[in-house]
User: Fold this.
Amino acid sequence: MSTPNASSGQSEISELIVRLHSLLPPLLSTQRSSWEQGICAQALLECHRLLSETGISSKHSHALPYDLIQWLYALAHESLVRQAIDGRLSVLLNGNGSSDPGALDPACIGETLYYLCAGVQTGSSAPFPPPRGAISGSLLDGVEKMLQYIVESCPRAPVDARITASTACPDQLLLSHRTDAVQIWSDSIYMLSPFLTSAAVFRTLDTAHAPGINTQGRYAPSALMRIALQQIILAADVLQAPTGEWSHIYDLDRREFKRAAWWGVGNGWVCCGIVRIISTLVSPMRFPDAPPFYVDLDELGLGSDGELRPVLKRLYDILVHTLRACLQHILPSSLFHDVLDDPHSFVETNLSQMVAYTIYRLLDLHAHSVRFSALGFPPIAKQELQEWALQADAMRAAAVGKTDRWGFVRDVCGSPTFDKPGTAAEGQALGVLMEVARAQYLWHERDTRSD
Assistant:
């Protein structure tokens, strides 16, 4: 491949910068709950990685007027300021954290924290000071407390009602999305498993063996990777319909659906979460002023003969099944109803951004990732990939059309109740993520053609 030239003015990067100038002010100005803090950080993290790959510094006046690492640290810092004593990040509002019953939502910012910690460990970044008075003495201590909560304290229950939690093996237990009820949500796929994947990957780095980092037993890289994958498969067994769509909420105590509806954004969380995991495993890791390198799949149990390789294939099958199911419900406007199969529900914007993000990532992986090809996933016909590309572009155009002069993406599931059209931090963040995924795919396409 040719060497990326930061001054060459590629249109896809220029278009991304224009959209960032529009989308980021509303995103960074919102009041955010724990998962919204996480999805905001994730959007900036993926943007930072792309700009690092292309050689365009966010410090350049023609790009962005600030350093994205500074923003990532600020978001991570605040997540530790508001960390509860039990380890959950970003949950303290005006109290002890009991007002935020999220068990898995607080993990959403975890990948950003591990990225910043890895940068420090590799010498690519200066140490990041922890907040004064916080319960954690460092960013690494903070994110490890979040991990310990997930592994040891998060409520959980077996999928099979005939098995008790005390007699079930770990692979039979679903982690609860909430602290005040034992429930599995479709949202959990995005909040939990990418976090566990980042924790597993961090432990494969040579610099990860710092004091206080447990890499044994349940905290070994392959053990964490197993939980990350198995949680999605267990959730799919409960929430995914034979046709591919996901119901929203199942109560594991009551053994009944709390919300059986095929919520569009919930299906989007599934798609985005799984494609994030796959991208993390096969894409080069990049840190400032350091050469890129790849994750050691063998240490994660995902090598060519690794015991988790078939499990990862199952995840990919779930992703493709979910994506195809969503596309069956797309409207002529390239948007979706809030509840996929309910024509009386409002027409919503964010799922189009989430599905477009997923498609752009999959197109990029299929066309440009040798490591992805080596995983041996079932092929997707060229014609279907081409149709996906057209649909992704149409969904993006619809979302851009829903963005007003102030940069707000309108008619997403609106905060704070998410049951009517409005605006939301997650809608802004997914707009950024969609644009980054598109720009990265087009960058690689242009770079390949120039060889």
In short: The longest helix spans residues 425-449.
